[in-house]
Structures are given as C-alpha cells and as structure tokens.
C-alpha cells in the first residue's frame, strides 16, 4: 500500500490557493489558473501509483477502483450541485438557467469540458457567469480514470507491464498536440483531454519510476526549490493573455513533478509543505475547489458589479468555512469502504443521484430555462440574450485563403444586374456580423450589393495583429487589401467596435514602416491613419462608422434583472462617458476627415440628452453589452441608408446633413 506523504497534501494547497485567489480577482495571482495543472500532475501520480501497486499484487479490480472514486469524489460534488441548483433556481434568469441546466447534465456524465469547449465561441456567454465551469477539470480527470486503468491492465497482460515506454509516448504525443493547437485552436487545447493528458501522464511516469531518484541531498534540495520556484513564477507572471496550456503549461507541471519527486526526501521544501496548516488546506482542497467558484459566480451575478475588498474577504471566508464543513461532514464520512457508500451501495446511490440531477437538468433544458418562475416581461427581455443571426458563421471568420479565392458572402441587391457595376465591400469585425442583416436590407433598398469581409475580434486596419489572439487578423486584413485592389472596389464600409480595441486589446504593428515602443493608443491611431490614407490614395470612397455606446453589462440581463429582482435599473453610459472613452478614436478620425467620404454616428441617434440608453421602445438594443440585437435595431436603417448614399459627411468632428 502506498505510504501517506503529507508533502503531497501540502502541494495540493499550493495548487488550490492560487486558483481560488485568481478567481477572486487578486491581481498578484494573475496566473493562478495553473493550479489546475498542478492538480493534474498530482492526480496522475497518485492514481497510477495505486493502480500499479494493485496490479502487481494481483488484486486490482475495476469495480473496486470505481467504487473508491465514487466514494472519494461524489459526496462533496453532490452537495455542491445541490447548493448550486437551488441557487440557480432562485437567481438565474431563464437563458442563464437553461445554460446551467445543460452544464449540469454535462457535469453528471463527465463531459463538461466538452460542453464548455463548445460554448467557448466569440459570442458565448461570459465564463464568469457559469456556476459549473470549474467542473471541466473534474471531467478531464474522470475521463483519464476511464482510460488509464484499462490501458494499464492491457499493457500488463499483453506487453508484460511495459507501462513506461507506452505512457511516455502517449505523453509526448499529447504534449506535442497541445503545443501545436494552443495558437491555432486554443479552446480545444485548453478543455479537451487529448491536449491535457500529458499533464496527468507526467505524474503517472513519476509514479512508475520513469525518473530515477536524485542521489545527492543537494540535488534534492535544488529540485524542490526549483519546483516551487517554477510554480510561483507561473502564478505571478502568467495572465489571461498567456498562450495556455501548450509550452507554458510545462513550467508549473515540471514544478509539481519536481516537488513530488523530491518531497519525500526530507528536503526543506518538503518539510515546509508538510507543516500542519498547509497539510490541512491540502486536505480540504477538493471541497475548497468545488465551493469557491459557485459562490463567486452567484455573488457576481446577483450584484452586477465587481467585488470590492470587503466583499472578496467575506467571500473567501465563506468559501473556506464551507470547504471545512464539506470536508468534515461530507467527504470524510463517505470515504471509507465500511462507510455509508461501501460496496455496491456506492453504485446504487450514485445512480440515484445522477438520475435526480439529470431529471432536473433535463427539465431546465426542455423548458428553455424554466421561464415560469418569472413574470412574462422578464422572459421577453431575457430572450434578447439570444436575439442574433443564426446564419452568421457561414459568412464570417473566413480565412485569408478564402478571401483570396473570393469565397465571401454577398448582401444587398444580388439580383439586380446593374449592381454588378459597383460592388461595395462591407469590412469589419463582429459588429459587421451583428449588423449584416440590417445592411443587407439597406443595400437592397438603394440597389447596391456588397461583399462581406468580417472577422470577429480583428480590428479592420492594415498592418495590425492582435496580441495573444489566435485568429489571423493581420493575414485576413492583408487579403482584404489585395481583394480591394484586385476587384477595383470603389466603396468600402468599415465598421468595428473601436472602443474595445482602444481599451481591451493590444496590437502589434507589423507594417514595415512602423516603429516600436509605442502605446496601444498610438498603434491604433497610426493604423487608422495608414489604412484611411492608403484607401483614399487608391481612389476608394471610405464610409466609416463610429462605435456604438453599448451598456455596462449585458443589456438583456440587466433589464430582465431589474424586473425580476426589483433592483434599480443598470445605469447607462452618460454621453460624456461615451465621448471620453472614445476620445482617441474621435481625435484620430477627425485628423483624417479629408480621407472619409461619409461617417455614421449612430450614437447621435441612440443618445438622448446626456445619456446613451441601451434600450429602444422598452427592449434591449444589444444582445450582449455592445452587439446590436436582431429585432430591435430597425431604427438604424434610415441613418444607414443616408450614410451609404453619402449624405453624411465629417466636419469639425460632427456629422451634418449636406
């Protein structure tokens, strides 16, 4: 039987504390998400050590293995799901409750990592509002538990126990796939087991003795310090913009491996991790991980605001208290074979729990979020969260090769022969996607047609590539430039959410004439000037749109919540705030006014007096916090028609009629 190592419980504490503090928004722990990777290495080590020992002694049983897993994992998970489901029923609005119900079903069947991967598109709901998001890592581990024991049994029987070379090859392939995909399909690399298995297998290889013990005390001491340093450095230096997992996951995983490998040798770091308070935090780490995220999500969801220091402290205290109670009264009583879930009762109770939760999740899914809990007005407002165009993926996010080959959608007067004489280009980001149907109608009404070239999250400017962004923004825009020249396009509409680029992203300027060391604002200013100047010099009529005012939070949720919870209506941006947030954009556009044929400032239509409402006729303008909804943007058609016909021009920073 494997001997108990208190330092490994201490390492669990090193894993869970950064995760909790990162999710609580503590800036010093910007890379705290790597704690999950440390957990993966620990899990791979412990599970493999137990399986290998039982197989070698001829007493391994698949049924007993899964019975132990049920007793270890299920009770605390059920307690957390009971709490989360009750809170979701009381708090979540219909669309969010529907998503919760779907995530509950996926968590029950250990596929929540697949569910959240499929939910991770550009227009998906914000991750911080999904109470069961953290179960993705549990699903990865549970999928590993399905494959590993069977694989080790087969290898023991048919390859005489040659576990190490086979698992090492699997780990190498998984790591290579992770490195390859992290810049191409980062969501796949993050959530799915083929790109995460190497982290668990690293622990497996340690457990099987693939790495010989360090012979000298100095080597063990150095290994422990290096391991702790790698984890600490990752926590402090990584951010949400870090490409992850891929190569960057190697640092915390190697750190965890070093601590496991040297921790049992009486090193300074091993003794530190074996201190009673640290070991205790490690002992409750599973409950701590389970409870922290739902508490944060439900608090943020209901409060509609960022947590201040006092609220964070209270939340962390509540998380720790619940974790202690969960460990003492839920985890411990069920852990031993002679306990409440001993023998076949484990499977029976697991089946009953899964059936009940599955019924609850199915009800929430089939009723589209149990709208009957609320007044019909709440359901009507909340429905705007999904009020967007379903066909858009077919027309957008085309790769540079698609642009080069002309594989782009056409909108407007497609059936009018004369329209072929003057084909426009509708170029932009996700705002082009969100408004495409409106522009389709307007182009048709004025007898014109347009090619659509839009890519989400990519600023429509020549020479720029978004930092830490896997999409081919630079290549896409270079292909657009070639498309304009090749097709001799004379009219280009440029639309984007400029506010987001100036405040929430960083760009690299890849233009050969660009200088380095400039600010985000300067890079965008130069990009706008370069793009407008180049198009104007090529004889292109430029039709530029200003950003929309947007809302502080998701507009449908804010409006529905004000009715459902009798809370004050979420305050819209004031006109002064909107202008201040977009001051740099307005200044740069004004400097380039001579290059612009027409300019659309829908904010002048939306803003009323000193405020910029996020509703029109009592319904949300946006389906999130800045993208126009499908059914409540009709008011924009008149201004857009005038804009396309060239009846709006830029003058002294304002839009006036000719």
From TrEMBL:
It holds the Pfam family Acyl_transf_3. GO terms for cellular component: membrane. Residues 395-630 form the SGNH domain. Keywords: Acyltransferase, Membrane, Transferase, Transmembrane, Transmembrane helix. The keyword Ribosomal protein does not apply. Residues 7-327 form the Acyltransferase domain. InterPro entries: Acyl_transf_3_dom, Acyltransferase_3, SGNH. GO terms for molecular function: acyltransferase activity, transferring groups other than amino-acyl groups. GO terms for biological process: lipopolysaccharide biosynthetic process. The chain crosses the membrane at residues 12-30, 36-53, 73-93, 163-182, 188-211, 223-243, 275-292, 312-330, 346-366. PANTHER family: ACETYLTRANSFERASE, ACYL_TRANSF_3 DOMAIN-CONTAINING PROTEIN. This is Acyltransferase.
